[in-house]
Amino acid sequence: MNKTKNIAFKIILLLGVIFIENIAVAQDIQFTAATSHNTVATGDRFQIEFKINSKISGFTPPNLTNFRVLSGPNQSTNMSWVNGQTSTSLSYSYVLMAIKEGSFTIAPAKVIINGKTYNSNSIEITVQKGVQVQQQQQQQGGKEDVNVSDELYIKSTVNKTTVYQGEYLFATYKLYTRIGIAGNELIKNAALNGFWSQEVDLGQTQWTEEIIGGYRWSVATIRKIILFPQRAGDLEIDPLEMRFVTQKRVSGGQSVFDQFFGKVVEEEHFLKSKPIKIKVLPHPEPKPKSFVNAVGNLDMKVDVSAYEVKANEAINVKVKISGNGNLPLIDKIDIDFPKDFEIYDPKITDNTKTTTNGVSGTKEYDYLIIPRFAGEYKIAPISFSYFNPTSKKYVTINSDPLTFKIAKGDGSSANVSYSSANKEDIKLLGEDIRFIHTDNLVFSNPNDNFYGSWKFYGLLLLAPILFLLTFIFRNKIRAANSDLALVKSRKANKLASKLLISAEKSLIQNDKKAFYENVSKALFGYIGNKLNIPISELNQNNIKEKLSTIHVSETTINELIETLDLCDMARFAPVPVSEQNVYESAKNSIQNLEKEIK
Questions:
Q1: Which of the four CATH numbers 3.90.226.10, 3.40.30.10, 2.60.40.740, 2.40.30.60 does domain 24-130 have?
Q2: pTM of the entire predicted model
């Protein structure tokens, strides 16, 4: 009984298919030919497509000897239902390359339907020189490098191709597709040698539609980066490489349903964006003495916590840079403090934000200074210069001169007072000075003569020795203050450890973005402080070169660079290792560098 039902079902289904085919044959047969471009340049690729709305028994393409055939014939079938009516169409497409100039006619293609031959229309193609076509396209509103022969590709663009050193530009990566996407994976991040980069948060992916070459494309911005060139010359943004899995419905299949509805096939695509060349102009000469490679539209403000204090009391001098520009790359502002002041590395607070309008906000340098001796000290106006790429001129901002009146400190105090709650490692003076004891007094014999005794001569000799020791100690303080690079190098490990602790806290809170940012800052900050590399020159090429020069092992260098790559990749795509492994790799890199850097 069941077998009879199955046979009846198959017969009904077969009759339905035959009925649909008869409807298709009964329709008016339409056989058309179309092209993506009627005017192309030599070396350009374009597509031609032949479409027929009926089942055929043979297809004869035209003579294409005037062009180079790159792909084809590519066959596809489309079935649709409109108002209860079924329509089927069959397409044959070719990807061609124009190889010589001239006007050419692509003859009609031929198909056979029920023993009868049908011809498509012909196609007129004009091939011109590449420069001529580009000029025409620019006059029409800018050239378009979209390749309509593909169904999926990545397009990379920049908003500027010529910039000054330190002037930002944006690199944008867009995905164009005409087929469904089931998944994607980053294979290789775009190498940005010579650039400092920061990812722009795009939020959730937004899809739009564009009509290009007569086709409807789905378009999404998959990545946007702000770039600051760190050196003058010709730089190149290397390609971004990704893998995509797509889904496409094709005709055929083993089952009746596959033959009727079409079969979904998954395909793997490896895509690569085009490299982009950037011309970077050097900063014009002469440069102001207070120029610290700052570029943009900026301002400076100076705040001082106190102008009159006692010796050994701390003062905070805050320099705040604000505006729009390469704020993250600005080195600390040089201030000519008196030699009798003990100076600590500034605490740097970065309150900048990266948006589609660039990097804006404030960067604050908080200097802790401790005057060790009484007196009146004058500091020349603090000067800050930046280069404005719009006006192509330098702008210099000067603060008012600073005058400090330092009173004599309390020598009996063993502590140094300071006004900020975030200071560290402040040296305590006077710890060796004891208070006078007033109990259990012992009186000496009045007949004992101190003058001329060995004690007298001992103290007499002790005075110049104490003076000499004080002089040496004071010079050491001055030397330590002047060699800031040495101070930064000694503190590199300590500062990196603090950032790694912050990264670990972020990991516990499942804040992956903050985790990778802190790990990256820890590694870059450690290398910058340890090797005295300015922020503006911190990139992987420079790091490799510097570490190789001081004979750090290749294994340690590779581990460091791989960890930095993972942190960079994780900002916009999943990475193939766990966060815990990245954390351990960062710790190991710093520990190994501490051992190997002498």
A1: 2.60.40.740
A2: 0.54
